[in-house]
Design brief:
By secondary structure, this protein is mainly alpha-helical. Helices cover 76% and strands 0% of the residues.
Length: 127
């Protein structure tokens, strides 16, 4: 199995973890795992295109820029990436965690999962 395929498989596992977390009412964790899914899928594309490891960065906008995906992204997807970036970084800090948790309603989290699922499929088709 190629390295980029391994990254896609892990990204898919992260999406499954987001779905399981949602079913367990762990909405903050679910959104965090959506970010992880997208990050790893973009890194898989980077590895595929460049035949080297992706940078150890987590900013989805930056990663999509260096992977030359930005011009192909819809405005809705760019908004999703910016949203997920916040949940990757800010959930690490106790003072922000509760603030973010309040925004993770069941409806909002389900919307994020559905968008992530579509973006993941789109990213796989970019190879």
């Amino acid at each position: 199995m190629e390295r980029y395929e391994i990254w896609f498989n892990i990204a898919e596992e992260d999406l499954q973890a987001a779905e399981w977390s949602f079913k367990g009412n762990q909405f903050l964790w679910s959104v965090f795992m959506c970010q992880q899914c997208v990050e790893k899928a973009i890194k898989a594309i980077y590895i595929y295109k460049n035949e080297k490891d992706a940078p150890k960065k987590h900013d989805l906008i930056y990663l999509s820029e260096i992977t030359k995906l930005t011009e192909k992204l819809s405005e809705e997807t760019k908004i999703l990436f910016r949203y997920l970036n916040v949940y990757y970084i800010e959930t690490r800090y106790a003072e922000k965690r509760n603030e973010l948790k309040v925004k993770c309603t069941k409806e909002n989290t389900l919307k994020i999962i559905n968008q992530t699922r579509e973006v993941f499929k789109w990213l796989k088709n970019q190879l």
